[in-house]
User: Fold Pectinesterase inhibitor domain-containing protein from Paspalum notatum var. saurae.
Amino acid sequence: METTATSRAAPGNLKILSVAALLCAAAAASFLPLSSAVVSVMSLTCRRTAHERLCISLLAPDNRSGAAGTVQDLAVIALTVARNSTRDAVWLATELGLGARATAPTADRDLLAQCRALYAACFRGTTAAIALVAAARFGDAKGAAAALRGYPERCERLFYARGVKSPLQRTDTALQEELLASAEIVGLLR
Assistant:
């Protein structure tokens, strides 16, 4: 008759294995992002927009996006990023206008001044849209955010109508994308 030996782990070995497994799990978890639940709010929100990559590229660089817990928080962040870019566009149009005083025709300087005025109005509009989102006046915020998208395009049309290459084309394109992504996020608010 053959006897088969069955191996049973000693109770002490099971404890060691359990502790080792827990340590491995803890080490693996330490490599996960601290705010993975919040990051998913951003990714879920951006997934619901028509331009997901644009949404992510707008929000991801801003550290506050990782702490955002709601679509409303993300809308404020997106509009704030767009407002900051609008402020930079006002500065750029001003600088180009000042530099153009000596060399550019008066008509070109006038175009830059008109674009500067458009950017300044857009800056005020983004500030107002941020206040509407923060006050949970989502219907008004949606209209305000959608209206902002036209400002960079109007600047470009000024140069196009005059047959002049716009020195603000890159700025206008980037700003238009930020305003589009912001408006889409605001559009998700209920």
